[in-house]
Amino acid sequence: HDSGDNIKFDVDFRTAIDNIDYKMADGTSQGKNDLFSNRLWLNMAYAPTDNVIFKGQLAAHKAFGADFGNSSTGMPQRGFGMDTFDWVTNETLTDSSIKLRQAYWLYMSDDFMGTEIPWTMSVGRRPSTTGFLSNIREDDAAQSPLGHIIDVEFDGASSKFSFGDKVGVPGMALKFCLGQGSTNASPRFTNTGTDYANSANSLKDVTLGGIVFTPYDDGQFKLETTAFRGANLPGYTPAGVMSIMGGGTANMATLGDVDGAAASLLVDGLDDDNEFLSNTKVFASYAMSKTRPEGNAQMLGMTTPMGTFGANVGESKTGESFWVGTQFPVEAFGGKLGLEYNKGSKYWRGFTYGEDTMAGSKLATRG
Fold first, then answer.
1. Which tens digits make up the pLDDT trace of 15-50?
2. Model-level pTM greater than 0.90?
3. 191 CB contacts (<8 Å, ≥6 apart)?
């Protein structure tokens, strides 16, 4: 701290057990009642000047005694997929990979071009998961997006303008966001020598642009809204699905764009004079999505020789989702208990690939 060139580290480490139960369409059940896991976040912060901060986060998330993402541990596969023992993961020569979850610069100023409006500018690997409201379940600080509609790791930039004091409305702010979720580029050492140039054999760049508008936030009542467009989203084609069903592999294709919007309200404390109610949170949120397929692409299921998974060839569809919940203290255990409910319509499509339960994105649920 004295020399101004130190990085401060802190740790968020969690061990969990999950019970998973899938009710299949054919009436059978599959699941696992004892999925143990460890999750480590190693957080970094560094402030080279009064206005500039670097923030980063290295992450590891794994099951007990298993390595689902790396078959180079020196141990044999136990079955179908990339399921390997990890008894010697750190004792053998494997690779040099470290998973980078976040890394970005944040510039802060109290005055935007003489207007006396505080503003920020940020660029890098974004804090774009565990957003507003979805952070409550994880007991984390809210990140940049609204968790109902966006929860996905992204690289990009954002700029926020806080003009609540200027207009006399607590917490009013506007944020502009741009990001890239996938890059089309040829790999290094191509036989043509055109390293990193656009590749005709790869998916198009996946990009996203949007705004986050906060009409009101006084610390107890907070309302946030957002609207965005994700362009060139990938997905599987019917031929790709058939290949997977036959035991093969399949490449994705660029299928189209998606628009999304959401409005989320949080009441953080119901009665300041009552200790239980003052620590109780309630929330409600509404979101909508609209698919924009490219040509005859299908973005909400597909028709294959094995059956129909959605008859929407080249059709733009609008979906919606509702989400309500509460969290309150449980003094006997010194903890918290939360309850939530969400329902999506037939054509709802969330951008919540990272909104994680072990069974997948809860907020992406249709029905």
1. 999 999 998 888 999 999 999 999 999 999 998 888
2. no
3. none
